[in-house]
Write a structure and sequence with these properties.
The chain is of the alpha/beta class. It contains 12 helices and 11 strands. Strands 1, 2, 3, 4, 5, 6, 7, 8 and 9 form a 9-stranded mixed sheet that branches. It is globular, with a radius of gyration of 21 Å. Bound molecules: S-adenosylmethionine (SAM).
């Protein structure tokens, strides 16, 4: 029996892209996501990368365009079918592997298979067991590999409660981060989890990851046809500000989504050498270790 989450995503798969194309803001949002993700991509193109919760393939296809061998995975068979069809159309001579998989177990994939993992558009927020999901992201990544994971933000998710005059709901949501995805059909509603920057970091660290960075997406909420979005020069300036300030407290508080970049430690790597300098007095002046 498919879960409500699976049923919902199966049903919307065929029109998912059209829904997001209606508002040009989402292209901006995806650009902010990609801009942040890019520096964490591996140099080595020979090992496959994994797109978890790939949906209709937005990020996996972009990774294919950058030369990577991509494995697409999603809880929803119908989403995966759309992603694979697009991969076939856009890259007819390339292989694209795919598997139905829940982020909670990533069962089809063997340990350390991927040099990079992307999970955009909330599969971790939608997971029924986040601890297991993190463990599995860690398991399938090769040592030193990065995962870039996007989730719902708790502070960014408050406004609908304010709009509904739902004070109790707001208090509860802020305290626990537990929400319900309000699909039109009651049988397709499913729970989601909204993170604070701190809870997101803590969960990643508990799974054994080093946190590289957390950003808020996006600093500027330009949903609903803001004129800045269509002007190329303005867009470039906005993207530069997102890059510069995206990891600041201001951005983390404002944004409706958070994006975390984590790295799997390489247990085999030699320990880092002792720092060669030490702070000797206030004001930050340093002298060589051992120097008198
Ligand atoms: C909002 S869409 C994002 C799709 C794509 N990553 C993107 O950014 O355009 C969320 C996707 O996550 C998938 N999903 C939801 N829960 C999941 C889970 N527990 N494990 C894996 N995928 C899941 C859905 O089927 C859907 O395709």
């Amino acid at each position: 029996m498919p879960s409500s989450n699976e049923r919902y995503h199966d049903r919307i798969a065929a029109r998912y892209d059209d829904v997001y194309k209606k508002d040009a803001y989402w292209a901006y949002y995806h650009e902010v996501s990609w801009q942040d993700l890019k520096p964490s991509l591996p140099r080595d193109l020979s090992r496959p990368v994994l797109d978890v919760g790939c949906g209709t393939g937005l990020f996996g296809l972009r990774l294919m365009k950058s030369g990577y061998t991509v494995v697409f995975s999603d809880l929803s068979r119908k989403m995966l079918d759309v992603a694979l069809r697009k991969a076939g159309e856009q890259f007819p001579s390339r292989e694209a592997d795919a598997a139905v998989a829940d982020i909670t177990d990533l069962e089809p994939f063997e340990d350390e298979r991927f040099s990079f993992v992307v999970a955009q558009g909330d599969p971790l927020s939608f997971s029924t067991d986040r601890r297991r999901a993190w463990r599995n992201l860690h398991r399938v990544l090769a040592p030193n590999g990065c995962a870039v994971v996007s989730v719902d933000s708790r502070f960014g998710g408050c406004q609908p409660f304010v709009g509904r005059n739902d004070l109790e709901g707001l208090e509860d949501f802020l305290a626990k981060g537990a929400g319900t995805w309000l699909a039109d059909r009651a049988e397709e509603r499913f729970p989601f989890h909204a993170f604070t920057p701190t809870s997101l970091r803590q969960e990643a660290e508990r799974a054994g990851f080093d946190v590289v960075r957390v950003i808020g997406k996006t600093m500027f909420d330009l949903r609903g046809g803001h004129p800045w979005i269509d002007d190329l020069k303005t867009r470039r300036r906005l993207l530069a500000m997102e890059k510069r300030y995206g990891a600041t407290e201001l951005a983390l508080g404002r944004a409706h989504h958070l994006q975390i970049t984590v790295r799997k430690r390489d247990a085999e790597a030699p320990q880092r050498a002792e720092p060669r300098t030490e702070r000797v007095r206030r004001g930050g002046r340093r002298r060589k270790k051992g120097a008198r």
